[in-house]
Amino acid sequence: MGLKEYVVRRLITAIPTLLAISVITFAIVHLAPGDPLQFFLALNPDTPPWMIEFLKRKYGLDRPLHEQYIKWLLMLLSGDLGYSYISGEPVSYMIGVRVWNTIKLTLTAELIALSISIPLGVISAVKSNSAVDHASRVFALMGVSMPVFWLGIMFIYVFSLWLGLFPTFGAATTGKVYSNIFEQWADELWHLALPALTLGLVRTAFLTRLVRSSVIGELQMDYVMTARMKGLKERVVIYKHVLRNALLPVVTVVGLSMGFMLGGAVITETVFAWPGMGRLAWWATLTRDYPVLMAITVIISTMVVLFNLVTDIVYALIDPRIKY
Amino acid sequence: MEPLLQIRGLKVYFYTDEGVVHAVDGVDLDVMRGETLCVVGESGCGKSTLAYSILRLVRPPGRIVEGSILFDGVDLVKLSEEELNKIRGRRISMIFQDPTSALNPVFTVGYQVYEAIELHQRVKGDEAWKRVMSMLRRVGIPSPEVRYRDYPHQFSGGQRQRIMLAIALSCHPDLLIADEPTTNLDVTIQAQVLHLIKQLKEELGMTVMLITHDMGIVAMMADRVAVMYAGKIVEVAPVLDIYEKPLHPYTQALIKAIPLPHVDVEELQPIPGEVPSLLEPPPGCRFHPRCPYAMDVCRREEPPMIDLGEGHQVACWLHAKR
Amino acid sequence: MAAAPASTLWAVAWRRFKRNKLSLAGLAITVWLVVTAILAPYIAPYDPNKMHWGKEYMPPCPEFPLGTDEMGRDVLSRVIWGARTSLYVGFASVLLIAAIGVTVGAISGYFGGWIDEVLMRITDIVLTIPTIMLLILIASIFQVRSLNVIILAIGAVSWPTIARITRSQFLLIKELPYIDAARVAGLSHPRIIFRHILPNALPPIIVAATFDMASAILMEASLSFLGLGDPRVVSWGQMLSVGHTVMLHAWWVGTFPGLAIFVTVLGFNLLGDGLREALDVAMR
Predict the structure, then answer these.
(1) Are the CB atoms for B27 and B67 separated by under 8 Å?
(2) Which of A156, A280, A281, B130 supports an S-S bond with A296, CB 3.0-4.6 Å?
(3) Would you state the pLDDT for residue C6?
């Protein structure tokens, strides 16, 4: 089948990209001035020289760079992400317990964004220059200019601290014992609401602009006339004929900007003390915990590469004009 | 002959930032049952807008400001959107200049025909698909039972216009409006598509309103011709009269501008002057700035439509009996 | 497009720009910010770092119009001085981004071939790594995170967009007849690139640079908020990162710097939108 070959071909072309990402990540950390252990040593100034030697050997820092890189790469490939400089825990464990939280946050936010931005963008485009359109454009413009952390802070202030409706931090109530699964879900959803809304709204603004301009472009096409000429209801013309075409570029952008979403998640997680990879990355940065930081960079980048891949495949499936 | 379509006092204006464009500015026109009427004029004279306004397909900022369009006694201008949708595609259909963009790129061609049949003929499934196949075969798509699953981009330009015809004619409409249907096609393909339209018109007993700027197409297709200039109809006549005794100076200029095989290109006479702006049309007769016979009255007063009998009408002061 | 004399192009652009009230608002906001930043020492009521002992967490009052923070520093003065930091980072980053982006894009588009292949591949890879991850990775390796380090980091992660735009412009323009003429006349490559192609490629680059300005300011604020900024300068992001912990009893500490970031970014986005419309640049 053509499709299978296409997927395999795209997978193969992704390999050099992933390798390059690992090289860049490694190079930034290891070619930088200063010692990867510096933060640890700053925290433990009394470390005896033999201990430093031991640590260097343990983390392979006494080997030549290319050897270190190859060893690190092989470890990555075997799923062994090494140990944290700070806590000594296996990095794969630290990331493993948090990765689901990040995915949950990101996908919920994306879902919120899509379910608001598509109808809003369509209405805005169809009734272009109406009051609804102006309002949604102002909303979108403000949204794309809004620092995600400030929005998060405002939400916490208004909805959590002031109105007391939502919790201020975490992904679940600490130490709570659930009597049944629904209670657990409710609690998790309750914690998820504000961070997902924060990340989602900023994203909504961006997507609304995109959907609007895409629909406006499609409305100029003659096939819209053909659909109307047939006697189809305007609702069918818009939501079947126009939207099907207008969403094609949206699919691409949604897929390609997943990295942007994951980036937004780093900040959102920090504001809401959300126990995900982003917050871990932030913490690792502050403590210069390089094994953790490098692993997260590579994992998130890999997720982005895979997302791009899926986007290309989905696009090829839904746009009959694309040959694969 | 009785009229199938009667357009009276139609005005379609575009409200743009630069001002109001008077695209169609008081048009009276009849389309007789069973005939092929060609509307000719230079690009930008409002003939396409006239065609689009019949099915109320004019895009904003364009709007029908005034007038009536009587189809079989019903005023299309006054119909509700819902009632109009029962006429669109079933009793009046339209095909467009660019068949490539007129077909939806993400639906199979078969489905695009199916959609119209399902909507208007109360059939679904196999029976409807049978009709899709027969329609595609009728417009000359080879092996439709295989190709109905293909998408528009997999067909040539001429085939796409054939598919558009299949969509438009799937419910056997009384009237087909064709807006420059062959302008974007090769000359040989043009002739094939025009022949197809002619043939289907006979088979289905349709009335055809054909919009074109090409006097060659007019000669090939028309029973009657309406000449449009700057938002107004300036002359209406049976096709032979248009070629043999054109009365309006503009029609005469159009005829002179036809490239003939035995005439040198240098002898071709382009129409002097520029197409007037429809933002501020000239006062009086709109053709007077380009007219070699322009008189005082032409600059002051708009000429009335003068009926000279035998279906020949002209809006020109030269032919007014004062 | 290339044949139009530059002066009329800009005159037409300005006429179109003027018509849109939102664009004018964007211009007004940005000019106001630049003036504020330049005149900061004269218009700020206090030294932004002066600690007014015993006047910590003062709510807005005549003495301190926007209140004071946890060390008794005047919030208004700090917001005004913060404009300096933000705009300095913004302008410097955009210069760096444009320098890298235009160079890469111009070389790629002008010479084509394997150079183009390699440069575009690198561009794609940088685009793949999430900006904020790359940013914090770079910020984390420096002992001292001065503003220049931050500018460097922002430049290192943000140049791909302008590189791509420049490349596609060059691909279009280098096919025009007058460039052939320049080549036949024996002009050197740099001369053709900088004197003959670049000026005509500018409109979309300027539009992208304006949007990059907004995002560079947002990036600096994000880094500072995350505690990865330059601790020695007054920065809105940093003020916010302190402010958000005391939101409940001293809302003014975080609200005003947050508002300042929002208005600044909005201003440059409006300006970018206006320029895009005025210069008739199609995005994507």
Answers:
(1) yes
(2) A281
(3) 59
Per-residue model confidence (pLDDT) at position A33: 64
Residue A116 lies inside a defined structural domain of this protein:
yes
Q: What is the mean pLDDT of residues C104-117?
A: 92
Q: How far is CA C249 from the centre of its chain?
A: 34
Topology of domain C37-272, per CATH?
MetI-like fold (1.10.3720)
Strands B36-40 and B224-229: parallel
Listed residue (A116, A272, A117) closest to A194, CA to CA:
A272
| N residues, chain C | 284
- Domain with A289 in it: what CATH number? 1.10.3720.10
Size of interface A-C (CB pairs under 8 A): 136
User: Among A226, A238, A239, A317, which would you mutate to test the B interface (most chain B Cβ atoms within 10 Å of its Cβ)?
Assistant: A226
Per-residue model confidence (pLDDT) at position C2: 43
CA C256 to chain A, closest CA, distance in angstroms equals 10
Those residues whose C-beta lies under 8 Å from the C-beta of residue B270, and which sit 6 or more positions away, are B257
Of C121, C227, C262, the CB nearest to A147: C262
Query: In this prediction, does ipTM exceed 0.90?
Result: no
Average pLDDT over residues A61-73: 84
Q: Determine, yes or no, domain membership for B28.
A: yes
Domain extent, residue B44, equals 3-80+224-319
> Average pLDDT per run of 10 along chain B, which is 322 residues long?
89 87 90 93 88 91 91 90 91 91 92 91 87 90 88 90 91 92 86 91 92 89 92 91 89 81 60 75 85 85 87 87 61
For chain A, say whether C142 makes contact (Cβ under 8 Å): yes
Is-cis flag, bond preceding C160, omega within 30? no
Give contacts of A 210-229 with B, CB under 8 A.
221-223, 225-229
Rounded mean pLDDT, C147-151: 92
- What is d(CA C58, CA B266) in angstroms, rounded to the nearest whole number? 89
Q: Band of the pLDDT at A36, cuts 50, 70, 90? A: low
Q: Residue A281 is encoded by which pair of tokens?
A: 């990355």
Which residues of chain C are within 8 Å of residue A142 when distances are taken between CB atoms? 262, 266
- Chain B residue nearest residue A234, CA to CA: B81
Which residues are registered as beta bridge partners of B15?
B20
Looking at the complex, does the CB of residue C72 fall below 8 Å from at least one CB of chain A? no
Question: Would you call the peptide bond into C190 cis, given omega within 30 degrees of 0 as the criterion?
Answer: no
Contacts of A320 in chain B (CB under 8 A): 105-106, 108, 151, 153
- Is B106 close to A229, i.e. CB distance below 8 A? no
The CATH number covering residue B7 comes to: 3.40.50.300
Q: Is residue A35 part of a domain?
A: no
Q: Is residue A304 part of a domain?
A: yes
Is there a domain that residue A38 lies in?
no
pLDDT for position C1: 39
A232 in reach of chain B (CB within 8 A): yes
User: pLDDT tens digits for A279-303?
Assistant: 999 998 888 888 899 999 999 888 8
Residues of chain A with C-beta less than 8 angstroms from the C-beta of C140 = 284-285, 288, 293
Give the structural domain span for A227.
91-318
In total, how many domains does chain A have? 1
Give contacts of A262 with chain C, Cβ < 8 Å: 130, 133
- B157 domain residue, yes or no: no
Residue C85 has pLDDT above 60, yes or no: yes
Asked, for residue B54, whether it belongs to a domain, the answer is yes
Backbone angles phi, psi at A166, to 5 degrees: -130, 155
Domain count, chain B: 1
In a domain, B313, yes or no: yes
Rounded distance, CA C131 to CA C220, Å? 12
Kindly list the domain boundaries of chain C, sorted by start residue.
Answer: 37-272
Mean pLDDT of A153-165: 85
Between A59-63, B39-43, C36-40, C52-56, the lowest mean confidence (pLDDT) is in A59-63
